[in-house]
Amino acid sequence: MTNKELFLTIVERLRAEPFLNGFKFRKRDSSFIQQKGDLRRHIELDHWNKEGVLIVYPIYMVRFDILLKWFEPYNVKSPQDQQDNPSIGFTGNMLGRQDKFRITESTFEQDYTTLRDSLSECSDIVFSSYNSLRDMYDRVIIPILESKQALPDVGADWAFKYLTLTRIESPEDYPAVKELVLAQVHKMAERYEPNIMDYFPRLDEIISVMEQTFPTK
């Protein structure tokens, strides 16, 4: 089999796996996706050829539409990239598991079993840990407030996601999180971090719109 045929065989087998029950395969980005209301679970199977061997690189993502929809009028990314933008994502390495998988025709059965078992384990870890906005708040924002986790120093989307998440889930912590996020954003702007500069001139306006969209009681 060619590597393309190997990958198609993997996809067809995965379709029948119980842990992917309810997921649909999206060909354009080789992803298994499950949408339940505002929550999307997403396993992307990035893959390529290296020295005649098929390499599969899974990415496990969760998206909460409520954190991202309001931001679309300001987002500089393409509409497709916006729709695919996760709220949080992990590679196998980030979970302390295998990152990339080598698939060959001669060892296909063993290679497939290794990949399948890792996909099942890693997706369960991510999807059970981030099943709600509260889960994400507890795992992302609380460590920042407790100075156990640093804020990102590249990119921009994270700033608006963190603010929105806190505004919705823990309004009492919003002023503290806003202060931390804005301090980091200004540091990034001082060194002209390109992603943050796309939004910095309208920063106050964007945050004001979010606060009006999600008023506190």
Describe the overall structure.
It is a single chain. By secondary structure, the protein is α+β, with helices and mostly antiparallel strands. It has nine helices and six strands; from the N terminus they run αββββααββαααααα. Strands 1, 2, 3, 4, 5 and 6 form a six-stranded antiparallel beta sheet that branches. Strand 3 (39-50) and strand 4 form a beta hairpin.
Radius of gyration: 19 Å
Low-confidence runs: none
Q: For the record, give the distance between the C-alpha atoms at the N and C termini, rounded to a whole number.
A: 61 Å
H and E order: HEEEEHHEEHHHHHH
Overall mean pLDDT stands at 94
Number of strands: 6
Class by alpha and beta content: alpha+beta
Helix fraction bin: 40-55%
Strand fraction band? 15-25%
What composes the largest sheet?
6 strands, antiparallel
How are the SSEs placed, and which strands pair?
Blueprint: H1 3-15, E1 24-26, E2 31-36, E3 39-50, E4 53-64, H2 65-68, H3 79-84, E5 88-91, E6 101-103, H4 108-129, H5 133-145, H6 157-169, H7 174-190, H8 194-197, H9 203-213
Helix pairs in contact: 5-6, 6-7
Summary tags:
single chain, 217 residues, alpha+beta, six-stranded antiparallel sheet, 9 helices
